[in-house]
Design brief:
4 copies of one chain form a homotetramer. Chain A is of the alpha+beta class. The first copy, chain A, is 21% helix and 36% strand. Chain A has a single domain, classed as Thiol Ester Dehydrase, Chain A, CATH 3.10.129.10. Chain A has a 5-stranded antiparallel sheet with strand order 1-3-4-5-2. The longest helix of chain A has 15 residues. Chains A and D meet through helix 1 and strand 2 of A and helix 1 and strand 2 of D. Strand 2 of chain B pairs antiparallel with strand 2 of chain C, so a sheet runs across the interface.
Chain lengths: 141, 141, 141, 141
Amino acid sequence: MANPPFPVRLRVRYAETDQMGVVHHAVYPVWFEAARTELSRAVGLPYSQWEAEGALLMVTDLSCRFRKPARYDELVTVWVWVAELASRRVVFAYRVEGPDGTLLAEGETRHLLVDRHTGRPLAFSPAMREALRRQPPPDAS
Amino acid sequence: MANPPFPVRLRVRYAETDQMGVVHHAVYPVWFEAARTELSRAVGLPYSQWEAEGALLMVTDLSCRFRKPARYDELVTVWVWVAELASRRVVFAYRVEGPDGTLLAEGETRHLLVDRHTGRPLAFSPAMREALRRQPPPDAS
Amino acid sequence: MANPPFPVRLRVRYAETDQMGVVHHAVYPVWFEAARTELSRAVGLPYSQWEAEGALLMVTDLSCRFRKPARYDELVTVWVWVAELASRRVVFAYRVEGPDGTLLAEGETRHLLVDRHTGRPLAFSPAMREALRRQPPPDAS
Amino acid sequence: MANPPFPVRLRVRYAETDQMGVVHHAVYPVWFEAARTELSRAVGLPYSQWEAEGALLMVTDLSCRFRKPARYDELVTVWVWVAELASRRVVFAYRVEGPDGTLLAEGETRHLLVDRHTGRPLAFSPAMREALRRQPPPDAS
């Protein structure tokens, strides 16, 4: 593991629920992404800068296991961490917890760094590698 | 009115519902947009071509009146038409009907044509104007 | 105006952008709703409680004027306030500002209170009316 | 495999793209769900009926592998089939193809049938089992 779990708090939106009365399962990848964004900021290299510098972190694989439903207006915590890091690939892992710490979902996303203009695979720069290995502050939210 | 109402049929998705058991109100602008796309294709100038040629049709105003709820798996019809057309602006109007023709919602979007690269307002080309005035086939779906 | 503007801060998500490179216009109603939720909590009567007690605040009208685009990872502020209050209807107004206070969008939503089970219009309870008139703390986020 | 791949055609919406210029990865689970809905109708037991009769098909696991990006206004085909069927569980598999048959993504969702009111696991009824095993017509779209 390149860095320890980093907590990102999110308030469940009404629009994120479905007629089952709980959060729709396609919302979790959106939360994962919001958590990656916060982690990238917390380790000093916001993802918005990556794109500005011509690198895109494409999602190549997504998996999620749903354990318990999340509900409207709950404050959930998405723990996110770098699970694997290679020269052009990175794996992020996630654990979503409810207000009382109950496990709601677990997931993983695999990514490939590509050049924004050519679409070709790209190696992480030393600054990116260093950031992805950096230990974020215990809680920045 | 530059052209008559054009019907676009859409099947309500589960993800489009919320915990009230009906379609979430923020889904209607997405349906309006899908209907504009189909209308642009029906009149012979698909919007994907507009963007490829460097023109963006920005949304400047949105309004919607919700009358009756739409529900999961219903086949709704979005009637779309050009309500106003000026040199750089166009107004689309919409009427959403349920499976039995019941009025579910009415709306309007106002747009400004801008240059994709400079962001500056742009006049519609003769081909665009002609397309926006063309009568679409009665039902292309 | 029943209460003064209340600020709700939101971080723009990557999933909220579209291929124009800015936030998609259908995201603003979702932000408005998130802001209403926070306002209802700030004035002491969270909307989740309203629904638990059998009252639904249906959206009957939505309008939004888009002035400047919001972008990925920006911290936007949605100012929300009660613009009108009647026995069974309420109007919320919104002003979305960018990180430097620039006006991005303005909007309004009109609502009707209905009984969750019968779908019939319902009068606001004294507790609801009082909450909707209460001045929220200057900034709870 | 309980039934052969069934094709569901979808037109890519503008709102489904992100600032990378392609369809956002969280949209694929929504397409998978839309495809399940069409398959359930094609085999004679629409999912809307399942819920009306008190059974919910909860998603317990989701996985997706992204191969090539889908783009605005493309007509994609989601092939869906029942990959596994047990007494209370079912696995659907998906293959998303672009307009020319290129593989864009592959995925799988695992589901547990539960009672709508108690939330307890439920066995598929004979009618449900029969439908999930039925061969859909070659193309109903």
